[in-house]
Write a structure and sequence with these properties.
By secondary structure, this protein is mainly alpha-helical. It folds into 2 domains: about 80 residues, no CATH class; about 160 residues, no CATH class. Helices cover about 80% and strands about 0% of the residues.
Length: about 260
C-alpha cells in the first residue's frame, strides 16, 4: 500500500461518520443513474441501492472476515454508526410526525386486526420452517418463529425463554431475510395489491411488520405513505415482544412438549 493510499485510509478512518455519508451518497447516486439510464426507471433507485448495499456488505465481510460487513473495514467503520439502531429509530420516529390523525382513524378496526393477523401468521410460518429443519423443542421453535415476526422480536423471545445462542442467531437471520424481502419487493407489488392510500399503508405495516422493511419499501414506492406504514409496523414489533414469549409460546408448548 502506497503512502498516499495509506493516508486516504487513515483520513477516512479518523472521520468514519463523514466517510459513511460519502459512501451512502455515492451508492445513492449510482443507483439513481442505473435506474434512470439503464432500467429507464422501471426499477426504482431505492431497490437498486439496497442491492448495491448488500453486495458491498458481502464484499466487506469477505475482505475483513468480520461480522459487520463493510463496517469491519477500517475506512468504512463509520457505517456501523450510520446504519446502527440509534439513527434508524430516530428517522423512523421523525417520519411518524408526518402522519395525520384523521388518516390514522380511517384504519379503524382493520388496522388493529392486521397487527394480530400479521404477528400470528408470521409466527406460524416461522414455526413450520423451524419444524421442517428438525427443531422439536418448544423453546427453539418459539424463538425461530418469533424471529420470523421481526429480527427484534426473535432475540427478545429467545433470551426470555433461555434459548441457545445459535437458535437466537437463527431467529435474527430469519427476521433479516424477511426485512430484505419486504424492502426489495414492496415497490414492485404495492400498487398491484392496493397500497394507494394511508389506510392501506397502515394495514400493510400491520400485516408484514418490520419497521425497517416497510419504511424502505414504501419510501421507494410513495414517500408520503411511509409515516403510516412505519407507525403501525412499530406497534407490530411491540405487540410481538409481548405475545411471542407469553401467549404464543404457551400455545407452542402445548403442541411441542
Amino acid at each position: 500500500m502506497s503512502n498516499f493510499t495509506q493516508h486516504i485510509v487513515n483520513l477516512l478512518s479518523k472521520n468514519g461518520l463523514v466517510a459513511a455519508f460519502l459512501f451512502s451518497g455515492i451508492v445513492t447516486a449510482a443507483a439513481a443513474f442505473i435506474s434512470d439510464k439503464i432500467t429507464k426507471k422501471r426499477i426504482h433507485s431505492s431497490a437498486i441501492a439496497i442491492f448495491l448495499g448488500l453486495f458491498a456488505a458481502y464484499i466487506g465481510g469477505i475482505i475483513s472476515g468480520g461480522e459487520k460487513g463493510l463496517a469491519d473495514v477500517a475506512a468504512f467503520s463509520g457505517l456501523a454508526i450510520l446504519g446502527g439502531s440509534t439513527l434508524r429509530n430516530f428517522t423512523i420516529i421523525a417520519s411518524s410526525y408526518g402522519a395525520k390523525m384523521s388518516e390514522i382513524k380511517k384504519a379503524g378496526v382493520a388496522g388493529f386486526i392486521s397487527l394480530f393477523a400479521g404477528i400470528i401468521s408470521s409466527y406460524v410460518m416461522g414455526a413450520i420452517i423451524a419444524f421442517a429443519f428438525g427443531y422439536r423443542d418448544s423453546v427453539s421453535i418459539a424463538t425461530i418463529a418469533a424471529g420470523a415476526v421481526t429480527f427484534v422480536v426473535g432475540p427478545v423471545t429467545g433470551q426470555s425463554l433461555g434459548a441457545e445462542s445459535t437458535v437466537i442467531a437463527l431467529s435474527v437471520a430469519a427476521g433479516l431475510i424477511k426485512t430484505v424481502f419486504i424492502m426489495i419487493f414492496t415497490p414492485f407489488v404495492a400498487k398491484h395489491v392496493g397500497i394507494t392510500n394511508p389506510r392501506m399503508a397502515m394495514i400493510f405495516g400491520g400485516l408484514v411488520g418490520s419497521t425497517s422493511g416497510v419504511s424502505t419499501g414504501l419510501a421507494a414506492y410513495d414517500p408520503e405513505l411511509v409515516p403510516y406504514g412505519a407507525m403501525v409496523a412499530t406497534f407490530y414489533s411491540g405487540f410481538g415482544c409481548l405475545l411471542c414469549p407469553s401467549l404464543l409460546y404457551g400455545l407452542t408448548k402445548l403442541i411441542f412438549h
